[in-house]
Amino acid sequence: MLIDRHKDRAMTLAVRLVGTRDEAEELVQDSFLRAFRSLDTFRGDAKFSTWFYRILYNVCMTCVQRRRPPAVRDPFADQATGVEEWADPEPDVLEKLETEEVRQMLQEEMLRLPVAFRAALTLFYVQDLTYDEMKIVLQIPLGTVKTNLSRGRALLRARVLERMKDEVHTT
Fold first, then answer.
1. Which of 85, 101, 108, 166 is the most exposed place for a label (fewest CB within 10 A)?
2. Who contacts 154 (Cβ-Cβ below 8 Å, separation ≥6)?
């Protein structure tokens, strides 16, 4: 029941942190096994999801630290969660292409961010965690959570604007 409840969001977090779906699947499985083996250490002073995301985050960070630089590819391809449906059943083709290009650019730029910023943005915007929950998962002070989130937003914004400026100049 716990796996069914948390597997989709765990995959989303893992894919966004490590960049590849295959690697993320292994890390999520490993994290669930570690959580199962450590259930007796779960104190209940935080939500299970927060405790589990901390395990998953540690496993992903170990993987990321073992390899440098991260591979750049579409981390959201074929993903059951996190893929938004078009609001209009028959959107304008040009609008759809532009939206897909922006989405692709954001995904690529997210993978280029330092892992601390990428983790903060993913936990806040994708996993919908509060600052306090992020503090527990990341095991950093609340001020650092807010700083990483703010700096991550600013860096992502700057990189996207730079890319958009470059694309306008080349067309």
1. 85
2. none
Using pLDDT thresholds of 50, 70 and 90, give the confidence band for residue 121. Answer: very high
Cα 9 to Cα 96: distance, rounded to the nearest angstrom: 26
* Res. 149 pLDDT band, cuts 50 70 90: very high
The Cα 67–Cα 65 span in angstroms is 5
Q: What is the pTM for the complete model shown?
A: 0.65
Q: What is the pLDDT of residues 41-98, one digit of tens each?
A: 888 777 888 899 999 999 999 888 887 544 444 444 444 444 344 344 445 555 655 6
| H or E stretch at 147 | helix 142-170
Q: d(Cα 35, Cα 48) in Å, to the nearest integer?
A: 10
Q: How far is Cα 10 from Cα 16, in angstroms, rounded to an integer? A: 10
Distance of alpha carbon 157 from alpha carbon 155, whole angstroms: 5
Both tokens assigned to 75: 């981390």
Collapse the DSSP code of 32 into the 3-class scheme (helix H, G, I; strand E, B; otherwise coil) and give the result. helix
CB-based contacts of 56, cutoff 8 Å, min separation 6: 10, 13, 14, 27, 28, 31
How many structural domains comprise the chain? 1
> For position 160, which CATH number holds?
1.10.10.10
